[in-house]
Amino acid sequence: MEHPQLTPTLSAILFVLMAESREIANPDLSKIGPSLDKRGRDTLLRHGLIESRKGARNAWYHALTDRGWSWCATELTASPPNRSLPPYRALYSVLAGIGRYLADEDLRLHELFGRPRPDESAKCSTADPSQRFVAAYHSLATHPGEFVEIAKLRTAAGIEPEAFDDAAIQLQRRAGVSLIPQEDQALLTDIDRATAVLVGTQRCHLFAIEEV
After folding, report:
1. Which residues contact 58 (CB under 8 A, 6 or more apart)?
2. Residues 59-76: pLDDT tens digits?
3. Could you tell me where the beta strands, DSSP code E, fall in the chain?
């Protein structure tokens, strides 16, 4: 599939989603980057670069797809579009520096931006991981019992990996809680596989709460 040539606004939106490495609601997106209107959303969805859903208060929530991550990774070694304004050319200089670092350290893009933020790690040291896990689930699920990807929960909860896994395993022992593998393995992304919770010998990718 060809590499889409996007407007500076749509490119900037993808870079914000990359840097945040999480699902972002439209009102929050407009506070840290360009607003994403229906026309722009439809363009990014058509190219398969983002996934969008309706969430709390009927707001749109957006996150990068694997193809969106790939698009951003390709831009790390690309030149800025023709007739770009100076701030946009400066952004591409920063991206090129990130690209050199990733190459030197043999890292992927999501391994750099998907790390817990310092303030989240600090909260994890004082808050009950199970409570943070449940709060993260309710922030992502649109209704009780909806299955949410473990990859999204890890980002939203901001819990250290080992504590996250322990919380997931403890919670799934409760009535009304499910921690299961994705039956259709073809739907799994590299991130889904890397962030799965290991229960015995089984890797689980989806989590749901009917009641806790």
Report:
1. none
2. 888 989 989 999 999 999
3. 24-25, 50-54, 60-64, 148-149, 177-180, 197-199, 202-204, 206-209
- Residue 132 and residue 29: Cα distance in Å, rounded? 23
- pTM (2 decimals)? 0.59
Contact 173, 143 (CB under 8 A): no
Nearest to 13 by CA among 29, 25, 28: 29
Name residue, tokens 């009917």. 210
pLDDT at 1: 62
Tell how strand 177-180 and strand 148-149 pair up: unpaired
Report DSSP state, residue 52. E
> Can you tell me whether residue 33 is helix, strand or coil?
coil
Alpha-carbon torsion (70, 184, 23, 106), positive or negative: negative
What's the N-to-C CA distance of the chain in angstroms? 44
| 3-state secondary structure at position 63 | strand
The per-residue pLDDT for range 102-159, each reduced to its tens digit, is 999 888 888 888 765 554 444 444 468 888 899 889 888 888 899 999 999 998 888 8
pLDDT value, residue 117: 54
Q: Could you tell me which residue, 121 or 168, shows the higher pLDDT?
A: 168
- Separation between Cα atoms, residue 133 and residue 118, nearest integer Å: 17
Instruction: Determine the distance from the C-alpha atom of residue 85 to the mean position of all C-alpha atoms in its chain, rounded to a whole number.
Output: 29
Cα(23)–Cα(50) distance, rounded to whole angstroms? Answer: 10
* DSSP letter assigned to residue 183: S
